[in-house]
Automatic annotation (TrEMBL):
The lineage of its organism: Bacteria, Pseudomonadati, Pseudomonadota, Gammaproteobacteria, Enterobacterales. This is Diguanylate cyclase (GGDEF)-like protein. The chain holds residues 501 to 789 of 794 of the full protein. Residues 24-278 form the EAL domain.
Length: 289
């Protein structure tokens, strides 16, 4: 029966939409709770200078301790929140928590440590971000040079003029800017010289092809040369094998992070694993090539 068929497919469609909407509303409601109940935690992944294996700081990566779902990874909630203003609120929490970690680390170790924080596109383009960052740095007495803000290549390319304005106001504070997930967008290398950046992060999908795929190696090699000519530094993410590490060291890549060097860990675990200090994480071996 025609009408019945239509009714069926329509209700199927509505159910699917309803589920999607419900899970988004649930997510947003849960998020409000999660912030209140302190269910978020920033994990820290160590970053190293590849030339001598010394510590270069950490990247903060958010985790959600959900009462029913357990440990929830960012891919399961950040992309959905990116379409709402909730991401800005969460982003403020991340910056606040990152800076209090830095001030705790300074109190423990007696010296400063560098930390990189990821910014969602909407958060990065929000006009109140620089004021917030500036106030938060003052509140925690953190040297702006210790904070690095990671912005994805696609946020920069998709909103180029607006992004330039945001980058300049953030740079004025004295923080460093890293272009994250480089190579995953559809941009060309040629626009890099227009951006005030300090660091380019080679996406892990590229790192994973090193030693296997000549074309990728060629791109990464050219990128390292170009970024150096522009006065920036290169970080390779997702280093999992000795072969990848050696290739990057040989090509003069400045810094690296990945499971081979150290996974993201809670602050508590990091401190436990290295006798109370965030800075003395075992050095990677220096490989002579
Ligand atoms: P990202 O900034 O590119 O972070 C790198 C991701 O690679 C992290 O995933 C990290 O755990 C993972 N990773 C590290 N080493 C390796 C490795 O050797 N191999 C592989 N395969 N992966 C490795 P994670 O923690 O799941 O975060 C995923 C993404 O979520 C991040 O990508 C970032 O875009 C976003 N994210 C994380 N924390 C935040 C946050 O506080 N705010 C915002 N806006 N986004 C965040
Ligand atoms: Mg990142
Ligand atoms: Mg990245
Ligand atoms: Mg990435």
């Amino acid at each position: 029966h025609h009408a019945k068929e239509k009714g069926l497919s329509q209700s199927f469609f509505n159910d699917a939409m309803q589920n999607r909407l419900q899970s988004r509303l649930e997510l947003e409601r849960d998020l409000d709770q999660a912030l209140k109940l302190q269910q978020f935690e920033l994990y820290l992944q160590p970053k190293y200078w590849l030339a001598d294996g010394t510590a270069a700081g950490f990247e903060a990566l958010i985790r959600w301790h959900h009462p029913l779902r357990g440990l929830v990874m960012p891919q399961a909630f950040i992309p959905q929140l990116e379409n709402t203003d909730r991401i800005i609120e969460l982003g403020y929490w991340v910056i606040e928590e990152a800076l209090s970690m830095l001030s705790r680390a300074r109190a423990r170790d007696g010296k400063e440590c560098r930390l990189a924080v990821n910014l969602a596109c909407r958060q990065f383009l929000d006009a109140s971000l620089p004021t917030f960052v500036e106030a938060a740095l003052k509140r925690h007495s953190i040297n702006p040079a210790m904070l690095e803000l990671e912005v994805t290549e696609s946020s920069l390319v998709d909103h180029f003029q607006h992004a330039l304005t945001s980058l300049h106001s953030l740079k004025r504070l004295g923080v460093d800017i890293a272009i994250d997930d480089f190579g995953t967008g559809y941009s060309s290398l040629s626009y890099l010289h227009k951006l005030p950046f300090d660091v380019v992060k080679v996406d892990k999908s590229f790192t994973q092809e090193l030693g296997k795929d000549g074309a990728t190696e060629h791109i990464v090699k050219s990128l390292i040369t170009l970024v150096h000519e522009l006065g920036g530094k290169v970080v390779a993410e997702g280093i999992e094998t000795d072969q990848q590490l050696q290739w990057l060291q040989l090509m003069g890549c400045d810094m690296g992070q990945g499971l081979l060097l150290g996974p993201p860990m809670s602050e508590e675990e990091l401190i436990r694993r290295q006798d109370g200090s965030l800075l003395e994480w075992p050095r990677i071996r220096h490989k002579k090539s």
